[in-house]
Write a structure and sequence with these properties.
Layout (H helix, E strand, L loop, with lengths): L1 H36 L10 H11 L7 E4 L6 E3 L4 E5 H5 L3 H18 L3 H29 L3 H39 L8 H37 L1
Parallel strand pairs: 1-3
Antiparallel strand pairs: 2-3
């Protein structure tokens, strides 16, 4: 029994640590890329909000509001409200980082407008993924308390499969939004050719955080599958 407990803990950290390290690395890359290009002004002098507004208006999305919200890198597009929300730094910032992030969020609005398939799949998965993300811990504790751990583990595997699938769908959605952002920024002349690299570095660093989230989800799913198989022996 003691061996089994130590084995489970050791197995947990074996799967947890690689995902954790990749996540930390991705966050560090994003931090330094964003910090660097938050100090580089764009030649156009446009704020992130103005750049997003220009992209949206050009696409005929004049009714899509661009609003300011508190927090750092809390930027997002809300498909339910059909509104774009930018953190204060990016809303008011006249930098390569601010314009790049704002354009990325506008890219999500363009995906919504174009009925981009994976964007719609991701949007449909949000409620069930939110439930799965909060339910699996309770299911594990309930299974342990009621001595039904083998059954609980397979339920947890099902919930983690949903989370992993969501992360798998999210990754190409984020890369596509960045691609749309870059295309519109350059097509509309909102950034210069020599500012292209800075925009790419910020958006690529942000995308790495989604790669890290996917890797972490896959590793934890594999952990629970391994644990379930061990419990069957």
């Amino acid at each position: 029994m003691i061996y089994s407990s130590f084995h489970s803990v050791g197995l947990y950290f074996l799967f947890l640590i690689p995902g954790l390290l990749i996540g930390i690395w991705a966050q560090i890359k994003l931090h330094f890329a964003y910090k660097k290009y938050s100090k580089v002004p764009v030649e156009s002098g446009m704020t992130g909000a103005q750049a997003a507004r220009r992209i949206l208006d050009d696409a005929g999305l004049r009714d899509t509001p661009v609003e300011e919200i508190p927090g750092r890198l809390s930027d997002h597009y809300d498909p339910a409200k059909r509104a774009l929300f930018l953190s204060s730094d990016n809303f008011h910032g006249q930098t390569v980082a601010a314009v790049g992030v704002a354009a990325h969020e506008a890219g999500h609005a363009l995906q919504h407008q174009a009925a981009y398939g994976l964007f719609n799949v991701r949007m449909a998965m949000v409620p069930v993924t939110q439930f799965a993300s909060t339910a699996y811990t309770g299911i594990l504790l309930l299974g342990m308390f009621m001595h039904l751990l083998p059954i609980a583990l397979w339920i947890i595997i099902a919930t983690f499969s949903v989370i992993t699938l969501f992360q798998l769908v999210t990754l190409p959605v984020e890369y596509d939004a960045s691609s749309r952002a870059k295309q519109q920024l350059f097509r509309l002349g909102l950034v210069r050719e020599d500012e292209r690299a800075g925009v790419s570095k910020v958006l690529d660093a942000a995308a790495l955080t989604y790669v890290a989230a996917l890797v972490s989800s896959i590793l934890m799913l594999l952990y629970y599958i391994t644990l379930a198989r061990d419990n069957r022996r």
